[in-house]
């Protein structure tokens, strides 16, 4: 996990509690659920983060120098080549309420080396509190 290097000590502590699921009710957020499946939690990386996202346009870019680089784009219609729009509406989901589906590319150098090319991507606005999604 990566956090912007400009976070204060108090913010860093709060972010670590949130991402590890410690500040939410059991099963209430993606962070709590994912944290329950991990055997090892790698040390956080505090670094400059360049992040831009356009959920409706299904476009995103993330760069953490020396750590990861990724981008997202719309799915393209195989016949016309035009952007194709697909959405998932999760009425009672705990991850999000609405997600736009796209394509993604990701490459990480550490702590785990990984590369995904033209894979599945989701674009969503997420508003969470200790009890889950704020609706």
Written overview of the protein:
By secondary structure, the protein is mostly beta strands. It has 2 helices and 11 strands. The chain has helices at 9-19, 30-35, and strands spanning 2-4, 45-47, 50-54, 59-64, 68-76, 83-84, 87-89, 98-108, 114-124, 128-129, 132-133. It is globular and about 50 Å long.
Describe the SSE topology.
Layout: E1 2-4, H1 9-19, H2 30-35, E2 45-47, E3 50-54, E4 59-64, E5 68-76, E6 83-84, E7 87-89, E8 98-108, E9 114-124, E10 128-129, E11 132-133
Parallel strand pairs: 1-2
Antiparallel strand pairs: 3-4, 4-5, 5-6, 5-8, 7-8, 8-9, 10-11
Which characteristics define this entry?
seven-stranded antiparallel sheet; 135 residues; 13% helix; 2 helices
| Structural class by sheet pairing and helices | mainly beta
Order of helices and strands: EHHEEEEEEEEEE
Number of helices: 2
Which consecutive residue ranges, at least 5 long each, have pLDDT under 50?
none
The gross shape turns out to be globular
Q: How much of the polypeptide forms β-strand, as a percent range?
A: 35-45%
The CA-CA distance between the termini, in Å, is 26 Å
Largest beta sheet, briefly?
7 strands, antiparallel
**Over all CA atoms, what is the radius of gyration?**
16 Å
Overall structural domain count: 1
Q: Give me the count of strands.
A: 11
| Percent helix range | 10-25%
């Amino acid at each position: 996990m990566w956090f912007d290097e400009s976070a204060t000590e108090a913010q860093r502590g709060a972010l670590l509690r949130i991402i590890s699921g410690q500040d939410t009710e059991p099963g209430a957020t993606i962070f709590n659920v994912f944290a329950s499946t991990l055997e090892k939690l790698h040390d956080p990386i505090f670094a400059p983060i360049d992040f831009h996202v356009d959920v409706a346009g299904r476009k995103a870019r993330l760069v953490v120098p020396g750590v990861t680089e990724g981008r997202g784009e719309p799915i393209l219609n195989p016949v016309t080549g035009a952007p194709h729009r697909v959405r998932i509406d999760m009425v009672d989901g705990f991850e999000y309420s609405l997600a736009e589906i796209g394509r993604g590319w990701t490459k990480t150098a550490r702590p785990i080396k990984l590369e995904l090319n033209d894979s599945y991507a989701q674009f969503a606005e997420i508003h969470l509190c200790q009890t889950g999604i704020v609706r």
